[in-house]
Design a protein that fits this description.
The protein is an alpha+beta fold and 519 residues long. It is 27% helix and 24% strand. It contains twelve helices and 22 strands. A seven-stranded mixed sheet has the order 13-14-17-12-20-18-19. A five-stranded parallel sheet has the order 6-5-4-10-22, with helices on one face.
């Protein structure tokens, strides 16, 4: 039987197979010649001390122990062309993994996506970056793969109690992701590699008899006696099914408005909102690794900060080492930021959302909108940012120390945000209470992370799409909507997930519940 070991080694040893085998041999007290194979199960970096260490969990096979390489294989997906049909609205992680699970269970998914396929989306991303033109159906948020496809591909989740995280990771590997995502403490695919994986998933769905309809926006639901019967598209077509998974993502405002208009029960949900801060990656490396030069054996350093400021949580969100900031508006007349990293995380800048927890009472000025009050609060800030940026996709920006001192920055260096920046006192973007918390919070962040508080850091506003401003309630047991039979609110847009992995898990859960009912 192989031995399982937990060990802590230097980055140099962790990166060198010969040195690692020698280290393991010493621990198990055998000659290095007798170590047949060392399989890394988990890997994480411990940078709490000046001498940085890599934590490894490994399986050690000695020369007389048989080692067989474990290959990740996809499930045996059968053809479901003639099977019962289930509609899935949205081709993000929740929708795609729901579709795969339905096929595995012998049901036919019909995936309806308002945006374009991954390749078609690229032209629209270029249009928003270069020409400041926002396509309401195809952008960083909408299109095949959802928001994560072109805005990072981070796979870390704290939602391990929600379902089988390893199963989702293994499926991603089966569709072409690097096996490293099974090992790393904070797995990441990268925006440059995720599109091909998403395309391969779509091709598998179609190969097995499922359907994927692009550039098809749902504009209405067919409902009889509080039971879903199908959907209507912007082309006027009706697609029938009494089982519909609603997985439209956190920015599908038209769907939220449709539900509200049809008096289908939804409710306002608190979310978080703030700015996206960009530092030189070299500076973050120096702070986190306590060194002048990171070296070749360490990855670009991330950071995570959480503080309580005036009774509110203020924290880093979606931190992107070696990454860039992207324009993520979904409609003309608004500015929205997000961040992403390529697989190598080799850009010269690091960015992170720095956001504040909101409360339902914050939405009081928008109470006339009922369940959409949080969405309107969010929209008002994004529209104000657009106005302050000269009614373009340039982002209101300010140096960090200048912001804490209420000073408009006299100059803004070029940042990774391609459409460009406009110097603005960011207190004009946010309500007064949010501005005050952000200013006090950055001072606290600077005390917690020496060197973080600097005018080299540029704040871009707003970071406003952290999660859905609406929850679409469902029964905890059946996962059906509390009012409409056969409608399964799902994923991040419904308020039941927060990222690629948790959304994929939720999509599978909804598919399983539908199969239970149908079979």
């Amino acid at each position: 039987m192989p031995s399982e070991l937990q060990l802590q080694v230097s980055p140099e040893i962790a990166a060198n197979e010969k040195l690692l085998y020698e280290n393991v041999a010493q621990l198990v007290r055998v000659s290095t010649k007798l170590v047949h194979k060392v399989v890394i199960l988990k890997r994480s970096i411990d940078a709490r001390q000046k001498a940085i260490k890599v934590n490894l969990k490994v399986l050690v096979y000695l020369i007389d122990e048989k080692y067989t390489e474990q290959k990740i294989e996809l499930p045996n997906y059968e053809n479901v062309s003639n099977k019962q049909e289930v509609i899935i609205i949205g081709a993000g992680p929740a929708g795609l993994f729901a579709a795969l699970q339905l096929i595995e269970l012998g049901l036919k998914p019909i995936v309806i996506e308002r945006g374009k396929d991954v390749r078609g989306r690229r032209r629209d991303l270029k249009a928003i970056n270069v020409d400041h033109i926002v396509n309401e159906d195809s952008n960083y948020c909408f299109g095949e793969g959802g928001a994560g496809t072109y805005s990072d591909g981070k796979l870390y989740t704290r939602s391990k109690k929600r379902g089988d995280v390893d199963r989702i990771l293994q499926l991603l590997v089966g569709f072409g992701a690097t096996p490293d995502i099974l090992v790393e403490a904070h797995p990441h695919i990268g925006t440059n590699k995720l599109p091909q994986i998403i395309q391969d998933i779509r091709e598998k769905i179609i190969e097995c008899g499922g359907q994927v309809l692009f550039e098809t926006r749902v504009t209405d639901f067919t409902i009889v006696n509080n039971e879903i019967q199908g959907v209507v598209t912007q082309k006027g077509d009706t697609i029938a099914s009494n089982k519909v998974i609603l997985a439209t993502g956190h920015s599908a405002r038209d769907i939220f408005e449709l539900l509200d208009r049809k008096k289908i029960f939804i409710e306002a949900k608190p979310f978080a909102l703030g700015v996206r801060a960009e530092h030189p990656q070299e500076l973050i490396d120096k702070i986190q690794y306590s060194c002048d030069y990171r070296g070749e054996h360490l990855p670009p350093a991330p950071y995570s900060i959480v503080k309580q400021v005036n009774g509110r949580g203020m924290y880093s969100f979606c931190m992107c080492p070696g990454g860039v900031i992207a324009p993520c508006a979904t409609s003309p007349g608004e500015v929205v930021t997000n961040g992403w990293s390529p697989s190598k995380r080799d850009q010269s800048t690091a960015n992170s959302g720095i956001v504040i927890e909101l409360k339902l009472e914050d939405f009081k000025p928008f109470t006339k909108f009922g369940a959409l009050a949080g969405m309107e609060f969010q929209k008002a800030i994004e529209q104000k940012a657009w106005q302050l940026a000269g009614e373009t996709q340039k982002v209101p920006a300010q140096r960090m120390i200048d912001f804490t001192q209420s000073k408009v920055s006299t100059s803004i260096p070029k940042t990774s945000y391609v459409p460009g920046t406009t110097p603005v006192e960011l207190g004009e973007v946010f309500p007064g209470f949010l501005t005050q918390i952000l200013r006090e919070g950055f001072v606290q962040f600077g005390k917690a992370m020496k060197g973080y508080m600097t005018n080299e850091a540029i704040l871009h506003a707003p970071e406003s799409r952290t999660s859905s401003p609406v929850r679409i309630p469902r029964h905890p047991d059946t996962l059906e909507h509390v009012q409409i039979k056969g409608l399964y609110p799902c994923g991040e847009g419904a308020g039941f997930a927060g990222g690629i992995i948790s959304a994929a898990i939720d999509g599978e859960k909804c598919a399983l519940k539908i199969a239970e009912v149908l079979k």
